[in-house]
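Subject: sequence -> structure tokens, single chain

Hey, anyone have a minute? Need the predicted structure for the following. Not urgent.
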Amino acid sequence: MTVKRTLPQRQRSMIGAWCFVDHYGPDDVSVTGGMDVPSHPHTGLQTVSWLFEGAVTHHDSGDNHAVVRPGEVNLMTSGAGICHTEVSTQDTTVLHGVQLWTVLPDEHRETSGRRFDHYVPEPVTFAGGSALVFMGSLLGSSSPVSTFSPLLGAEVRLDPGAELTVDVDPTYEHGLLVDAGDLTLEGVGVEPTQLAYTGVGARTLTVHNAGATPGRALLLGGTPFSEEIIMWWNFIGRTHDEIARYRQEWEEHSDRFGRVDGYIGHDPQGLTRLPAPTLPGTTLRPRVNPEARARTD
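Reply:
Had a minute. Here:
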């Protein structure tokens, strides 16, 4: 599949507690084989799955089993440790979506427990478009999905030529991930698969579709996350030694991560559990996130 990593990037590591954003597709998975990720671990985060097309089965060690569908958010909380699998369904021909992570604050990362939330937001309509608010609040719509820090996540759709000016929380920093259309954010053009950033302080944001085709984007936001974190492979921790311990526990099949039941991959001879890569020969250090203001360099 065609995957574009939009966060973390050189200019910014996080937007609020959002620390990882992958845009993938649209791909004809009847040709490429689709998504097939065997059991793999996570610590200290929530995964947020959002699809535009296709469907993906989800199984995790919290005994949660679900199908991810377009317009429906699936949120998995790792707590101290979880493992899960992701496989596109056999009837999926085109797969297209976004995979996101949010960081659990230190006070919650060992105590939140394994959890799975599913929510189908009702469309909010406005002149020239609509929105699906799957996390936080926007345009008078609020999601019941629980988060551990203030966050916003919404899919925004704009008709050709339409413009949306929306009230936002000035304590939030925001990012706009464009999926389709000739869109601008605050007058600045944003190409598809690019992530634009605004910093804190804005009370309104304006998104315009200058093109002749429908536009679609994800609007993400949150209060700046002040804790230093280390991201390596599928783990989020605070120190090198902590990450090394997570890796060792995964390789030793520790109870920290549990076991997934129900995984059926596309390849009967394929792996059922991903091995952890080798740690680098240098000490892992926290990511440095610039101050919460827009930058052009």
